[in-house]
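As agreed, record copied across for absentees:
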Amino acid sequence: MASIWTGALTFGLVNIPVSLASAVRAAEKTSFRQLHKEDLTPIKYERVCPTDGEVVPWNEIVKGYEYAKGKYVVVTPEELAKVKTPSSKAVEMMDFVKSDEIDPRFFDTPYYLVPQKGGEKPYALLREALENTNMVGIGKLTLRQKEHLVAVRPIGDALVLEIMRFENELVAPEDLRFPDAEEQKVRPQEIAMAEQLIGNLAEPFDPSKYHDEYEEKLQTLLRAKLKGKKLPDEEDVEKPQKTAVIDLVARLQESLASTSAKKRATKQPTAEKKTATTRAKSARKRRAS
């Protein structure tokens, strides 16, 4: 996989040569083109001036900042070049903080830090130290003329660099209204039932269980249309239901009964197998005596 940046990761006087490789890949999503209905020709978009209706060539387009409604100040490429942050070849760790102290909303895009020749030992040293102390390194990286706040954390054998959001990019919870448990008269027994229901539904995280069902259905539709077939109507499509006042306790009780029954059914074959094994052992002992 091609690297998008090569430089060094530094903490104190330790310098680790690394490169940056994407830790995620864009999912293949079905996209559509807008076509002319009459002849299925793709529609072309042009840069048209709304004042005279004429197409504007690229050499007549400038960048402008709207400082008031309908009022702009023009900024030239030369002026922009003066304020651009020069590309840096180092990610310097400024602070180390506890992993669980960072609000997950700060994290954006992950990248792998890949050690370069000569950097393997200090790379492993930093990874182990971060793992053992449950710490995350906080630093800054300049990438494509933009300065980013970043976090470096261990994941398995890798060090992962995560582009972070700055504080002013987050929406404060106080800007919205959320229900208060006391105001809603949430009772301890309701919380206990909800906790039990969560326990019944608890499973180890398995990402392979989850799929983009819309994309799969869309691909099925397109394959059918390409073969000249109609997609059969789904019989199990749920119709929108009217919102109704619900008895929360009753719903919790029903959910608990359902999940408990499923759990018992899952455990039953194992229990039956153990019983059969025990019976077989007893029979062998009787025959031996």
